[in-house]
Design goal:
The chain contains nine helices and 24 strands. With about 500 residues, the protein is an alpha+beta fold. It has three domains: about 300 residues, Rossmann fold (3-Layer(aba) Sandwich), CATH 3.40.50; about 90 residues, Immunoglobulins (Immunoglobulin-like); about 60 residues, no CATH class. The strands form five sheets. The chain has a seven-stranded antiparallel beta sheet, with no helix packed on it. The radius of gyration is 30 Å and the shape is globular.
């Protein structure tokens, strides 16, 4: 009989242990069904279609949301603005700007790596050394204007590299990491995050912190003097700084977690604006590959808050793609930084075509200059009307403007340049076919009934004694050439060459 009782007791113990493994130990947060997807140990990108990685409202009322969409079309950047619905505090909002991380839509990012360099992470540090150059190369190939920083921590915090745009500098800083100590977990993780926040971010960039650890965190009043912060406080600081927070941390530790020292509680406190990866579930190099994909496959969605003026408010943003959605939070902040949030244009952006534009944003300054730029061409806007929240003007596209993506730049009187998130795409234009000499009547004026044949505008007259040059020839207008007198007609402020029935630049003589 005794052996039967022992057997029953053993079975009960096995069942209890199994239950604890599945549900989590008493006092832990593993069994909370309200935790983010993957919180209990499953990697967060699995099982969800939409993930908000961060919401930046440091230039409130302009709000920027960073989103991952885990479908083939979403990961290839094939989704359009029409495929995604944005809801702020329960109300749909109009999207001012929508882009995907790619060379065609350059973006800015401040990426901080917060690394636990205690002895238990020796293998991960070696993997990080191996992968960091691959990561920076992928970021560069995506045309992301990225700054990097590195902060390590044990019971104390060390800033290894302040903000730098040099990929080699961050690689050297990572190469300098050495795993040592840390036998007395927890570690000062919250204070390392706060050290990054103290360095500040560029207001117009995406703010991202990748936090790598295999232990619990110290917190204020945990019986030690190592930390000055609590998880709710650091969560508030991350939200108010618009940080995309990615935790590569443990799902299990020696002993048990509490809500005070479990960094997954930090992800939870961000209202969904963050990601969690289980550091023990996958090979760490695979996790780094996934982080690289997160950085280079992000949708950036910008909108203007429908509740302006409420600085310090906690806002909620919901992103819907098909039947799936994700929700995140932000804390509204105002900034005196000039910020471009959107663009509206009347007409098509084609060469030889003047287009009225209105640029929305904040903190625009009188006497600023505005232009659109590409790798090959800079085009100034004219007839500017500037208010603190908008700039209207005329984009006069030269006839020889190369097709491609152009970015908006606003240059304040003190020389500060703000680059807009909106890419202006100029498409090739059709050659303008002019009326014959017989159609023009007397030289100099086009009859009103023929004005529609002149690119939609009235020809104001032949330009006397104008210099001109042929398409494809040297711009030396003094070189010998057979030409007819007065080949130029001015329509809508553009010069048309009657000889070649096309619009070409006219150099100064």
């Amino acid at each position: 009989m005794n052996w039967m009782i022992s057997m029953v007791r053993m079975v009960c113990v096995v069942l209890m242990v199994t239950a604890l493994v599945i549900l989590g130990s008493p006092g832990s947060v593993f069994a909370d069904e309200n935790l983010p997807p993957g919180y209990g140990g499953a990697e967060i990108l699995e099982g969800s279609v939409v993930d908000i990685t961060g919401i930046n409202a440091v230039n409130y009322p302009s709000v920027v949301t960073y989103v991952l969409v885990h479908t083939p079309e979403g990961e290839d950047g094939l989704l359009t603005e029409d495929d995604i619905t944005v809801i702020e505090d329960g109300k749909p909002v109009i999207v001012n700007d929508f882009s995907f991380s790619s060379p065609a839509t350059p973006t800015k990012m401040d990426l901080a790596i917060v690394f636990d360099d205690t002895g238990s992470l020796d293998d991960e540090i070696e993997d990080m050394k191996e992968k960091v150059r691959e990561l920076t190369a992928a970021i560069a190939s995506s045309q992301i204007d990225c700054r990097y920083s590195l902060v390590s921590f044990k019971d104390t915090v060390t800033v290894r590299q302040e903000w730098t745009s040099d990929p080699d500098a961050i690689a050297r800083a990572v190469d300098g990491l050495e795993a040592s100590g840390g036998d007395d977990a927890p570690e000062a993780d919250l204070d390392a995050i706060e050290a990054v926040l103290e360095m500040g971010f560029r207001p117009e960039a995406q703010h991202m912190i990748v936090d790598i650890t295999d232990e619990k965190t110290h917190y204020r009043d945990d019986g030690t003097s190592w930390s000055q912060y609590t998880i709710p406080e650091t969560a508030g600081h991350l939200l108010s700084n618009g940080v995309s927070y990615i935790l590569i941390g443990p799902a299990t530790v020696s002993g048990s977690f509490t809500i005070h020292d479990d960094k997954r509680e930090l992800v939870k406190a961000l209202g969904g604006s963050g990601l969690f990866f289980d550091i023990h579930r996958d090979d760490f190099r695979i996790i780094l590959d996934k982080i690289q994909s997160v950085i280079t496959r992000t949708y950036t969605i910008r909108f203007t808050s429908q509740t302006p003026g409420e600085v310090g408010r906690i806002g909620t943003v919901k992103i819907l793609v098909g039947s799936d959605s994700d929700t995140g939070q932000y804390i509204a902040r105002y900034s005196d930084q000039t910020m471009i949030s959107g663009l509206e244009a009347e007409g098509q952006a084609t060469p030889c075509n003047p287009v009225p534009v209105v640029i929305s944003g904040q903190n625009f300054i009188d006497d600023s200059k505005v232009r659109v730029v590409s790798d090959y061409t800079t085009i100034d806007l004219t007839n500017l009307l500037i208010t603190p929240g908008s700039i209207s003007g005329l984009l006069t596209i030269p006839c020889d403007a190369p097709a491609g993506a152009y970015l908006i730049e606003v240059i304040s009187p003190d020389g500060r340049t703000t680059t807009g998130p909106v890419a202006w795409t100029i498409t090739p234009g059709e050659p303008v076919v002019l009326p014959s000499d017989e159609d023009t009547g007397s030289e100099g004026i086009v009859p009103a009934d023929l004005s529609s044949r002149w690119a939609g505008g009235e020809c104001v007259g032949w330009e006397d004694d104008s210099g001109y040059y042929l398409v494809g020839r040297d711009q030396d207008i003094s070189s010998p050439e057979e030409r007819i007198p007065n080949p130029w007609c001015w329509c809508n402020g553009f010069p048309y060459n009657r000889n070649y029935q096309t619009c070409v630049p006219m150099p100064s003589s």
